[in-house]
Design brief:
The protein is mainly alpha-helical and 42 residues long. 40% of the residues lie in helices and 0% in strands. It is built from one helix and no strands. The longest helix is centred in the last third of the chain and has 17 residues. The two termini are 12 Å apart. 2% of the residues are buried.
Amino acid sequence: MTTRRRIALVAHPRHPIAEPFKGGMEAHSFHLARGLWRVAMR
């Protein structure tokens, strides 16, 4: 049986979590969310 998971990403509206990144926190948040999404889609 597969369980659906939901992932919430809370970020500052002034700095988008998308490439090109403005700084390290945006890049970290992006890669963390992408990794969580990959795990959830297994």
